[in-house]
């Protein structure tokens, strides 16, 4: 607690003033946390002084809010690119990051209980900089570090506001920001070290070395190889739901089982079911092989039955046997972005909507994946596949922009493999007007991006369709084959 207050004083965060008569003074409180290492051992104990932000009034105490959070797709893309280019990814942790943000609003807070200045107990602090708990604290911190990185010569990505790149004809330096964590990579180790030193002159931070544990994700960096997994988190899930001794399942879902809202089974505690699905949802950050099962089960959060709970526990049983699995990125012959797109026509019993699934790879492990119910009812398999391909094309355009910002431009069209000839024909041929007029916007979009040369739909056989694993439950043999093609394996 004294260390936290010392950091606040050192940072010139506040000023002791008389209590204002016409302004609301916000209270503060202490929050305690134990930070763990990847192996579960204690890293350190922390005490954080936070403002009771729930007492703030919009338009008076704050206006805009924003947290600088990088997408997991972006982080995995950086790791996949690092494996391809044989770069190393480093991690920096900014100490008390939010205390560095300058405030635009006039905010007063109470003195922390037990640490009031002797003889001035009735005075309050006027904040010059942000404190944790303030609604605008993340935005203030982002504004500060954004200005600093731009002053250092970095260019901010227009497609990802937390991605910064600095390059010349030969060297490149990349920074990805996730609140108070900075991920740094590039092809010149001297430039990386110089960047660290420049940052430490302005912000107090810890150099964590090679990126090895981030947001519960374990990262192992080798020679032209990166492996990511959540082994520790998977074991925590097993322990939390008392399934450490359960029998392992070979697939996450029973192929013959079709789930629906009204299945006649008794309802279960919604809070318990939501907690279980929420835990599994975060596990999909490195486990695309369970994404379809978790996505399917998440549709029954508000009406979970015994059958839904049984299916969810089967996913945990599958995790039990594959707890050390993750995605491996390796160096491939060509650095080309390739996508796979698939759909399950009318797969939902409740509303007959289809499921779209896609994934993207550079030739080894996939780094971007999705499984999502379509927003409208598709009237044919071709339409369902077409809608799925449109979603994949949207993601491909965004990924191409990110790669362009990273100076890793894709000069050729990005291939998206689809196992439906009719959907591909519709995307090229305007003759199908009568059958396609009800989804004209998607139709013209997909035709346009192909005409521009950004994306091209390519036919592939169903046996080679990797995205099949994101749209339906599969027999064990096919599931294991596709899982391997995703790059999912044990450490």
TrEMBL record:
Keywords: Kinase, Transferase. Pfam families: RVT_2. The keyword GTP-binding does not apply. The keyword Transferase applies. It comes from the Eukaryota. Residues 11-254 form the Reverse transcriptase Ty1/copia-type domain. Coiled coil: none annotated. GO terms for molecular function: kinase activity. This is Cysteine-rich RLK (RECEPTOR-like protein kinase) 8.
